Amino acid sequence: MMEKIDMAGTSEVFAGFAEIDITPSDFRKCELIGFNRLDSFARGILHPLKAQVLILKASNQTYCLVTVDTLSFSTALTDQLRDSIAEQLHGRRKDIMVCFSHTHAAPDAAANNAAYFMFAKQKIIAAVDLASQTTFPIKAAWGIAENTIGINRRSDADATDPRIGILKISNAATDETQLLLLRVTAHANVLSSDNYLISSDYFGPTRALLEETYHCKVMMTQGASGDVISKYRQENADFLEKHPLEAAKIVHDEAAKKLIFNESIEALNKNAAAIKSAVAAVYDEIEPTAIHKLSMHSGTLTFKADVPTLERAQTIAAEAAFAGIDGSDWLEEVKSLNTKGIQTQTSQREAQFLAVNNGCLCGIADEAMCETAIDIKERAQDDFIFFGGYTNGYEGYLPTAAAYDKGGYEVLWSNLIYYKYYHRVMPFNRDTADHLAKQIVQIWQRILTS
After folding, report:
1. CA 18 to CA 32: how far, in whole Å?
2. pTM, two decimal places
3. Helix, strand or coil for residue 345?
4. Residue-wise burial string across 276-308, b where 16 or more C-beta atoms lie within 10 A, e elsewhere
5. What is the pLDDT of residue 2?
């Protein structure tokens, strides 16, 4: 469903920026989220976690982009956050976009009656207030750098999104660059299941390196990286990611622990350096101009997931067991759905767009795969539509048709662990990614002609 698109008047656009530390004050009470392991309590802090806020104002319209260093919040919690921000700005939920880095080394927002979420929410509201008080006139322009850090993590695929989207924002009065907004496609799980330190993963070191280089603030959003990992990782990263329970049983001596830790730090820094090099190759070519188009738009999409027969479910659970995944609770849920005669589970999804001149960030609250972002770009015949996941929440993987047919962790087995959070027992149906791509392109083309 596509609602009327409101375009802000763009005679002059103002921006405000603020960031705030959302690292928990007592890490010992925090359970990290991102890996299926028995003990996920944090044991220290490697990098601080940040929330960053960009406010864009034109005429009587205000839009807000928030980036958060965490795996994600649920859509329900994210909507609570968006509503609080909207109230603070005297605006609407649909004009607030929240993008998550998807780091696997941040606290579980829903644990302990959502204690960390409430802490982070309060901090983010404070940052919104600060950003709204420090606005300045801006110009902006998009650029595209080469994404050299993303590799496909599925053994039978090699697709990646080769683009790093860059929005350069400068002060219209001084022409000084004030902010770089990057969209990068690569999983933020360089720190794997053997890590118990709170961290922003490669996002933090990358921001720091770029800020040091260009003397401006840097925001980053995650692309459609459901099947894309970072090129630079520790040597045993594949084993750690696929077999976290088994990996946790391995005892290393202090020398081995130090070696593994140093490998991880080196990998984080290599990813940051690669992104810096990619940005440097195109930075001077990106020349901000006056903003003639500015809008934020939301559309509602309907996705369906068919409930498997009990026989099919037992086969899936048996396959997942080889990866150390216990599907007994999931099987009981499937059995209950079959008994009740429920054959399909339906979810509503918000697709949101932030359009600035000829380009946009857009996304949904799912872990989409890079092939979907590429499909959208090619259908639109437009390199400047940057589609990503982890937008306004997280509700599980969204496989392409080809990935759906091949199954595996991202498509099937993850549901056995997280079905209670996804509110469904199976991935969305085989044709969902195709329908999504068509609808995203239709909305984007409508925005361009408005």
Report:
1. 26
2. 0.94
3. strand
4. bebbeeebeebebeebebbbbbbbebebebbbb
5. 44
CB 207 within 8 A of CB 218: yes
pLDDT 10s digits, 397-450: 999 999 999 988 889 999 999 898 889 999 999 999 999 999 999 999 999 988
Residues 6+ apart with CB under 8 A from 318: none
Q: Is 194 helix (H, G, I), strand (E, B) or coil?
A: coil
Burial class (CB in 10 A: 0-12, 13-18, 19+), 4: exposed
SS3 assignment, position 186: coil
Q: Locate all alpha helices (DSSP H) within 283-355, ordered by sequence.
A: 310-321, 328-339
pLDDT at 10: 52
CA atoms of 380 and 397, how far apart (whole Å): 23
Distance CA 390, CA 205 (A): 20
CB 164 within 8 A of CB 278: yes
Pairing label, strands 44-45, 197-198: parallel
Q: Are 352 and 411 in contact (CB under 8 A)?
A: no
